[in-house]
Amino acid sequence: TISGTEDTKISVKSGLTYANGANITFEGVTIESEPEGEGYTNGFADMKYATFNNCVINGTIGLDFTCEFNECEFNIAGNYYNVWTWGAGTATFNKCTFNCDGKALLVYANVLDNGTTHQTVNITDCTFNDNGDDTVTGKAAIEITNTYTPVRTYDVFITNTKVKGFSQTVPGAGD
């Protein structure tokens, strides 16, 4: 368990931080990442399972492990996503707030940690806020895309979730 306050900052700005096979809980800390279009080169890698409780995540975080976010706040500015579910077998978001300029959660799988071509994303009691930057294109609170062979399949469960803003509803090319 890694715990602290919002003033406790964990930086993953210079690439992936590996924790091979570990079960880790982050409690009350701020995780600093870089906003990026790739979505999977900054963050944590190769964990077995991670739980994030009451954390603030600034920048883009890519997931390649099964994880759960509870009462977390995600913040990003510009034409970037808060989260890519890139390799998570299952990603769960409970009572989280996503603040962005129009791209919050990208459900998109490459190599999955569950050994299959299937990913499950659970979103419960969350809020997605579009901060209103009109220069961001292809806005989506939750976007699902698939460009890999074999084709990835997804179950996305959305329960009691609010979406504020996101006036542009046309997805990007190929999505």
Would you kindly provide a brief summary of this structure?
This protein has strands at residues 2-3, 9-11, 16-18, 23-27, 30-32, 43-45, 49-53, 56-58, 61-62, 66-70, 73-75, 83-84, 90-94, 97-100, 103-107, 118-124, 127-130, 140-144, 153-159, 162-164. By secondary structure, the protein is mainly beta. A seven-stranded parallel beta sheet has the order 1-4-7-10-13-16-19, with no helix packed on it.
Summarize model confidence as the mean pLDDT: 86
Query: SSE order in H/E notation?
Result: EEEEEEEEEEEEEEEEEEEE
Pick out the low-confidence regions: none
Q: What fraction of the residues are assigned to beta strands by DSSP?
A: over 45%
The biggest beta sheet is recorded as: 7 strands, parallel
Notes on the structure:
- This protein is mainly beta.
- It is built from no helices and 20 strands.
- The protein has a 7-stranded parallel sheet, with no helix packed on it.
- The model has no long low-confidence stretch (mean pLDDT 86).
Topology readout:
Blueprint: E1 2-3, E2 9-11, E3 16-18, E4 23-27, E5 30-32, E6 43-45, E7 49-53, E8 56-58, E9 61-62, E10 66-70, E11 73-75, E12 83-84, E13 90-94, E14 97-100, E15 103-107, E16 118-124, E17 127-130, E18 140-144, E19 153-159, E20 162-164
Parallel strand pairs: 1-4, 2-5, 3-6, 4-7, 5-8, 7-10, 8-11, 9-12, 10-13, 11-14, 12-15, 13-16, 14-17, 15-18, 16-19, 17-20
